[in-house]
Each structure stands twice: as structure tokens, then as C-alpha cells.
Specification:
The protein has a single domain, classed as Roll (CBS-domain). Helix content is 39%, strand content 16%. It is built from 7 helices and 5 strands. Strands 1-2-3 form a 3-stranded antiparallel beta sheet. It has a two-stranded antiparallel ribbon with strand order 4-5. The radius of gyration is 16 Å and the shape is globular. The protein starts with a helix and ends in a 13-residue tail after the last helix.
Length: 152
């Protein structure tokens, strides 16, 4: 199965000049955890990605003012991307390699045409790929909960 068969095509974007507050509101409104950052809404040329974790760690944890912090200050530039023709297995391998849960899908001109999430792979890929992808993505992402374990 290919990325284009399961990716989300209705992508909610933001621009580098948008504020962290506006991005957070869009994430909440549209129930998404990441927004591709594009040069402008017309061309949708991908410049980066901002995640809910970026907002938490780079804005809230740093006591920055969300209404004044620009996405350009907290986004990941040159994010990992995939093409619509990539297989779900290839996409899952990228997620494993880079320890990420969402990947923007770009066309051959660098325009963001979709996004694929770990959940999309979990719902559509063969069970073996799903298990491997989930295990690899999750194993080295520390939750901080280890310190709370009774037997730690």
C-alpha cells in the first residue's frame, strides 16, 4: 500500500510568521498534533513542521509568550518528508529511523500535499510492519515515567 492511499489530504498549515498561540488554537480546533509550516498558503512550499511537543517544550517550558512567539522560532526546519508514491513500509522505516510520529507528504516541487501519521500506518499497514514501527518509534522516546515506577 502507498502513502497516497492513506495520507490525510486535508492539511491544516501554518506559516513561519504565525504565532505559537495561533498554531496551538488550530491544533486544538482541528484535533491534530502537528502543522506543516509552509511559505504561504497558496503555494504550500514546505519550510518546516511544528508539533504540540514543540509548543510545549519550546514555548510553555521556556516561559515564552505564546501570542508573541513566532513559529519560525520553534519549528523544525527541513523536516523528514516522504512522497505520495512511497510505500507504508518505507514511511514506517523513516518514522523509526528519525523517532517521529508524523511526516509531511510533498510533491516533486516541494509542496506539502498531505501528512501521514503513525496512526495511519497502524490502521492500514500489515500487522508486522505496524508492530515493528510502533516498537521502534516508542523504545527510545523517554516519557519521564520511568522515575515514577515503583520498582525503579
Amino acid at each position: 500500500m502507498l502513502v497516497k492511499d492513506v495520507m490525510s489530504r486535508k492539511v491544516i498549515f501554518c506559516t513561519p510568521s504565525d504565532t505559537a498561540q495561533a498554531a496551538a488554537r488550530n491544533m486544538k480546533l482541528h484535533r491534530v498534533g502537528a502543522l506543516p509550516v509552509v511559505s504561504d498558503f497558496l503555494n504550500a512550499k514546505l519550510e518546516g513542521i511544528v508539533t504540540d511537543r514543540d509548543l510545549c517544550c519550546s514555548v510553555i517550558a521556556e516561559a515564552r509568550v505564546a501570542e508573541k512567539t513566532k513559529i519560525a522560532e520553534v519549528m523544525t526546519r527541513n523536516p523528514v518528508t516522504c512522497a505520495p508514491e512511497n510505500t507504508l513500509e518505507d514511511c514506517g522505516a523513516l518514522m523509526q529511523e528519525h523517532q517521529i510520529r508524523r511526516i509531511p507528504v510533498v510533491d516533486n516541487q516541494g509542496r506539502c500535499i498531505g501528512i501521514i501519521a503513525q496512526a495511519d500506518i497502524a490502521l492500514h499497514a500489515p500487522a508486522g510492519i505496524v508492530a515493528k514501527t510502533l516498537a521502534e518509534i516508542s523504545k527510545s522516546i523517554g516519557t519521564g515515567r520511568e522515575a515514577w515506577a515503583a520498582d525503579a
